[in-house]
Design a protein that fits this description.
Blueprint (H helix, E strand, L loop, with lengths): L1 H18 L7 E6 L2 E2 L3 E4 L2 E3 L1 H13 L2 E6 L2 H9 L5 E2 L7 H4 L3 E2 L4 E10 L14 E5 L3 H6 L6 E5 L2 H9 L5 E5 H9 L4 E3 L5 E5 L2 E2 L4 H16 L2 H9 L4
């Protein structure tokens, strides 16, 4: 009898596993780091932002229920690799290194890394970062590119606002961060400034597991419709006002 029950329970577990993964799933699980305004942020008990809204339109278009999972940024790609999430959207820049681990959709917007400093800082261009103490978020392109700065000390933080706090407290000299979050941080703190010269120019895209080509094709088809209809620009303009 015990053996029959064990087999029965194992069957239930297998059915449950199959129901929440694979191309036949009714859910679209999105891995993100919801501390990256205006692309993803928490409002009340909900994650909102550019990426959240674009993901919702894609989910609606392909007939799935969007589920957003908040996690550390350096866990986002791994979540897609291991099948814990279907897609990664976290202001995710296309890089050659990341392409080794996941596939990327067509890009949906251009971005840039910029340098945030305390107002009046002697750091006035990327060249001035040599020998300085620089804050970055772990796993971001800022983290990757900062490693090439001569004689710099890189301080890595799990969230951007932790790096910004360290800058405000004088523990570091600068923070390398994506342009739009940098604007949000600078807008709420008059002691912070963004250097005019961009550190890098990049493109954001949606990360998908390499084994999930069918989903990638669906996402690219959906993204094309959303871009052609102006919906993507509409969402971006809702959160990012023209200069």
């Amino acid at each position: 009898m015990k053996k029959i029950i064990s087999v029965f329970l194992a069957g239930i577990a297998l059915v449950s596993l199959c129901a929440c993964s694979g191309s036949g799933s009714k859910k679209l699980v999105m891995a993100t780091n919801a501390a990256f305004p205006p692309y993803e942020m928490v409002e009340g008990n909900k994650i909102i932002g550019i990426d959240a809204e674009i993901a919702q339109l894609i989910a609606d278009d392909i007939g799935r229920e969007l589920v957003i999972e908040d996690m550390a940024f350096d866990s986002v790609i791994a979540a897609v690799q291991t099948g814990k999430a279907d897609i990664a959207m976290a202001g995710l820049t296309i890089t050659e290194d990341r392409k080794q681990n996941i596939d990327f959709s067509d890009p949906y917007t251009e971005a840039a890394q910029v340098i945030v400093v305390k107002t009046g800082s002697e750091v006035a261009s990327p060249d001035d970062l040599e020998g300085k103490i620089i804050g970055v978020q772990i796993g971001t392109t800022g983290d990757i590119y900062a490693a090439d700065i001569a004689n710099a000390t890189i301080e890595r933080y799990s969230k951007y606002f932790e790096a910004i706090n360290a800058l405000e407290q004088g523990k570091i000299d600068a923070v390398i961060v994506d342009r739009e979050p940098a604007k949000v941080f600078a807008d709420v703190n008059e002691d912070l400034s963004i250097i005019d010269e961009e550190f890098t120019v990049e493109e954001y895209a949606i990360g998908v597991g390499k084994e999930n080509k069918e989903l990638l094709d669906q996402i690219n088809a959906s993204l094309k419709k959303l871009k052609d209809s102006g919906k993507v620009d509409e969402i971006i303009n809702k959160y990012i006002k023209a200069e």
